[in-house]
Amino acid sequence: MPTTLSQSNLPGLELIHRGKVRDVYSLPGKRLLIVATDRLSAFDVVLPDPIPGKGEMLTQISNFWFGKTAHIVPNHLLHTPLEEVLPKGTDLALYSKRAVVTKHLKPVPVEAIARGYLIGSGWKDYQATGSLCGIKLPVGLRQAEQLPEPIFTPSTKAAVGDHDENVSFDAVVSAVGKDLAEQVRDATLAIYKWAAEYAAKRGIIIADTKFEFGTDEDGKLYVMDEMLTPDSSRFWPADQYQVGISPPSYDKQFVRDYLEKLGWNKQPPAPKVPADVIAGTAAKYAEALQRLADIKLD
Ligand SMILES: Nc1ncnc2c1ncn2[C@@H]1O[C@H](COP(=O)(O)OP(=O)(O)OP(=O)(O)O)[C@@H](O)[C@H]1O
Ligand SMILES: [Mg+2]
Question: InterPro entries, alphabetically (predicted)?
Answer without folding.
Answer: SAICAR_synt/ADE2_N (IPR028923), SAICAR_synth (IPR001636), SAICAR_synthetase_CS (IPR018236)
